[in-house]
């Protein structure tokens, strides 16, 4: 029981100590917040309000200042006393052990201080802006006044460089100066909000005027000096060229000069109205048209230089091509007596001669025109280039035709050598067949042999004609070459079949008395060999019989024959 009582006493003491400590904590918070309130009362807002109140303000600026005064007065007369009252109540609640009420009072003081802090910052920022605007605008009045004085001096000193735009420039400057005076009066009256709008418009208009003053001199120089000088130069140059027998594809050059001069005058009027974007665009158009006139004349000057330097070269090229054509036609006629010209070389050569005649006529007409009348040299130069290209093409075709007909002679020599080789080869085949001493030659082989022999004879007759058709000769040579290969193959087959058939028949004699099938096969193979001249079938019959009694021997005998064979066929 005593222990419980002691425990209760200890807890009570601890609670008391906690309450006392928390009271002290709350009282310290209240003291600190009151000190912070006092610091806020010492902010320079009040002195800045008094300072700005000494500046002349009007309009919306004055209204804004008055609103700031009212806002600060509300803070001073209501918020600060509210904090003092809450602090006093909070201290009393702490002393009366009303802890929860005291905590609420502390929270209220904090909220009030936050409101005062926020309002003070806002009011201070607005006051700083008013002061800054006043200072900036006062400085801007000085800057603009000096700038307009300089602009006025510039217009007076350099009025000749602005041409017809000087009157409107002066008018614009006068309007700016009048607007500036209104701005200065607004600044002096203290209506800084209104003055700020006026200042922005002034700055924009002033920048535009300065930009015009910078751009106009170059534009005016183009219109007053550059373009007129260039047009005078073009007039003089055009007259000189006409006097020296030049002509132009576009005969409107004098009209263009007058039209461009009129455009220059019109653009001066545009400049006087300060429509600078239009002036710039018009000047570019005028400059391009003038460049076009220069280019037109320079084209003819350059063309004449090239024509004078190359005209005779083309004439010499034409003469050279004509000589080549004459020589080619003679050669075609000469070779045409000995060969059939299947490539229409004669027609092609005459076509080239006709083209040469057209080029000659065109060139002679240009020569006469250059001598007797004004000419457009660029057109003559264009024709010269085309003539040169045509002459290159003609010469290339002449060379190709000549090479083609000259090949006929070599082709004839090659064909005669090939014919001679075929003749030697077919006689060699004939001797080979005769030397085989066979009982007879198959009729099919002899027919093919005589066909090939007739082909060679026919080719020889064609080669000995007065006028040779080399295309036909080439076709015959190709056919004979193919047939000779076939005849050689057939000759080899006869040679091999006959030789092997004889060898195998002889070899099988050893089996004839002991093997009736072999004996019968041997008799049949011998008959095919001696009477029918069918050496392939004879070989086939006897080979089957031998293979039946002695497998593999046919291959051995065949290989032995091939190893010992020493003839071409």
UniProtKB/TrEMBL annotation:
Keywords: Cell cycle, Cell division, Cell membrane, Coiled coil, Membrane, Septation, Transmembrane, Transmembrane helix. Residues 23-569 are cytoplasmic. GO terms for biological process: division septum assembly; septin ring assembly. GO terms for cellular component: plasma membrane; septin ring. Pfam families: EzrA (PF06160). Its main location: membrane. It is found in: Cell membrane. It is a single-pass membrane protein. The chain crosses the membrane at residues 6-27. InterPro entries: EzrA. Residues 1-3 are extracellular. Residues 113-212, 342-411 form a coiled coil. It comes from the Bacteria. The keyword Zinc does not apply. Belongs to the EzrA family. Negative regulator of FtsZ ring formation; modulates the frequency and position of FtsZ ring formation. Inhibits FtsZ ring formation at polar sites. Interacts either with FtsZ or with one of its binding partners to promote depolymerization. This is Septation ring formation regulator EzrA.
């Amino acid at each position: 029981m005593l222990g419980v009582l002691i425990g209760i006493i200890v807890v009570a003491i601890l609670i008391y100590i906690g309450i006392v400590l928390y009271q002290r904590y709350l009282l310290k918070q209240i003291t600190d917040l009151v000190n912070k309130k006092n610091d806020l009362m010492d902010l320079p807002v009040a002195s800045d309000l008094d300072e700005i109140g000494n500046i002349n303000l009007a309009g919306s600026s004055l209204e804004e200042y008055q609103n700031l005064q009212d806002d600060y007065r509300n803070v001073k007369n209501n918020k600060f006393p509210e904090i003092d009252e809450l602090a006093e109540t909070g201290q009393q609640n702490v002393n009366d052990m009303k802890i929860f009420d005291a905590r609420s009072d502390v929270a209220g003081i904090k909220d009030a201080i936050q409101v005062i802090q926020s309002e003070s910052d806002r009011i201070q920022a607005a006051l700083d802006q008013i002061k800054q605007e006043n200072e900036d605008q006062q400085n801007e009045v000085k800057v603009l006044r000096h700038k307009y004085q300089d602009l006025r001096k510039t217009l007076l000193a350099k009025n000749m460089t602005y041409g017809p735009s000087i009157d409107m420039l002066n008018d614009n400057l006068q309007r700016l100066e009048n607007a500036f005076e209104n701005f200065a009066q607004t600044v002096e009256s203290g209506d800084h909000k209104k003055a700020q709008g006026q200042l922005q418009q002034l700055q924009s208009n002033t920048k535009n005027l300065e930009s015009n003053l910078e751009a106009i001199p170059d534009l005016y120089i183009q219109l007053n000096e550059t373009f007129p000088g260039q047009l005078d130069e073009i007039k003089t140059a055009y007259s000189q060229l006409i006097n020296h027998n030049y002509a132009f594809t576009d005969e409107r050059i004098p009209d263009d000069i007058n039209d461009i001069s009129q455009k220059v005058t019109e653009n001066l009027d545009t400049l006087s109205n300060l429509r600078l974007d239009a002036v710039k665009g018009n000047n570019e158009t005028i400059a391009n048209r003038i460049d076009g006139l220069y280019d037109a004349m320079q084209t003819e000057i350059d063309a004449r230089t090239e024509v004078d330097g190359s005209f005779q070269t083309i004439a010499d090229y034409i003469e050279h091509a004509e000589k080549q054509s004459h020589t080619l036609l003679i050669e075609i006629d000469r070779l045409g007596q000995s060969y059939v010209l299947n490539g229409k070389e004669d027609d092609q050569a005459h076509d080239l001669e006709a083209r040469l005649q057209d080029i000659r006529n065109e060139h002679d007409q240009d020569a006469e025109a250059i001598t007797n009348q004004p000419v457009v040299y660029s057109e003559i130069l264009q024709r010269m280039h085309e003539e040169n290209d045509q002459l290159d093409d003609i010469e290339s075709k002449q060379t190709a035709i000549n090479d083609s007909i000259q090949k006929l002679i070599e082709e004839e020599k090659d064909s005669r050598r090939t014919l001679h080789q075929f003749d030697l080869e077919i006689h060699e085949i004939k001797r080979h067949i005769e030397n085989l001493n066979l009982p007879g030659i198959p009729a099919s082989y002899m027919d093919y042999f005589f066909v090939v022999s007739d082909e060679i004879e026919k080719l020889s007759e064609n080669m000995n004609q007065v006028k040779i058709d080399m295309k036909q000769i080439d076709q015959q040579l190709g056919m004979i070459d193919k047939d000779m290969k076939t005849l050689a193959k057939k000759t080899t087959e006869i040679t091999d079949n006959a030789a092997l058939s004889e060898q195998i028949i002889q070899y099988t004699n050893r089996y004839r008395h002991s093997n009736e099938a072999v004996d019968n096969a041997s008799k049949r193979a011998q008959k095919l060999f001696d009477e029918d001249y069918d050496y392939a079938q004879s070989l086939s019959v006897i080979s089957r019989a031998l293979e039946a009694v002695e497998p593999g021997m046919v291959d051995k005998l065949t290989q032995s024959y091939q190893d010992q064979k020493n003839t071409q066929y």
